[in-house]
Specification:
This protein is mostly beta strands and about 120 residues long. It has no helices and eleven strands. Strand 5 and strand 6 form a beta hairpin. The radius of gyration is 13 Å and the shape is globular.
Length: about 120
Amino acid sequence: QVQLVESGGGSVQAGGSLRLICAASGYPVSSYSMAWFRQAPGKEREGVAGIRGIEITSYAESVKGRFTISKDNAKNALYLQMNSLKPEDTAMYYCAAVRGWLLRWSQEKDYNVWGQGTQVTVSS
């Protein structure tokens, strides 16, 4: 059974950093396209960052230069390093995966495995 479990969320002040971890089980992350999405209260879920193939990374414009997505095949995990956090980054963050290659990384309907989410709160 394929499963994703996120951790690493929390409350920080603006300008701070957090590192989210998505632990995968039941499949090797090396064979999957994966991404981080987030959903703020009253807003639609949006793609934050994605990683496809041999570490082809993509980012939403709002996080470019501040967030870094990475994957550790040996640990079977996905990471999101978030620096220079802003209050507008406050949201529930979700890890998502799908086997194989994706042409587009940011469409949530293209992913068929999701974690339960981890909350990130950034105060000003």
